[in-house]
Amino acid sequence: MIGIISAMQEEIQALHTLLKNEKIIKKGMRTYYYGILFDQEIVLVFSRWGKVASATTATQIINDFNVDEIIFTGVAGSIQKEINIGDIIVGKNLYQHDMNASPLVEQFEIPILQKKYFETNTVKRDLLYKACQLFLIEFENFIDKSNSIKFNITTPKVLIEDIASGDQFISTKQQISYIKNTLPNIACVEMEGAAVAQVCFEYQVPFSIIRTISDNANNNSHIDFPKFAKIIASNYALGILKHYFNLNSNT
Question: pTM for this structure?
Answer without folding.
Answer: 0.95
